[in-house]
Design brief:
alpha+beta, 4-stranded mixed sheet, elongated
Length: 95
């Protein structure tokens, strides 16, 4: 009985994993959608860092949390850049 249950559990896990696989996203489309102007990129060591520098005035630096991106701050940036220079970046391995 245990072997049947183990094989059934294994089969369900394999089927679930196979059903969740999707093709890779097209990098060009991703860059067009998420890294369009005013995005810029800087080479820092071996990292290619995506950042945005918008507005004028006293600078405000916005840093996103784990599993997020600079786009987390879109709403804040829209307001802040009216009176401040807003700098935000994608932390390496995120965004």
């Amino acid at each position: 009985m245990f072997r049947k249950t183990a094989w059934l559990t294994f089969a369900i896990v394999v089927i679930a994993l196979a059903a969740s696989v999707r093709p890779d996203l097209d990098p060009a489309k991703l860059e067009q959608q998420y890294a369009a102007a005013p995005s810029r990129f800087a080479e820092i060591g071996h990292w290619r860092v995506h950042y945005r520098d918008e507005g004028q005035g006293d600078p405000v630096v916005l840093v996103h949390g784990t599993t997020s991106s600079l786009h987390t701050w879109d709403g804040w940036t829209a307001q802040l850049k009216q009176h401040h220079r807003v700098i935000r970046m994608d932390l390496p391995a995120f965004g």
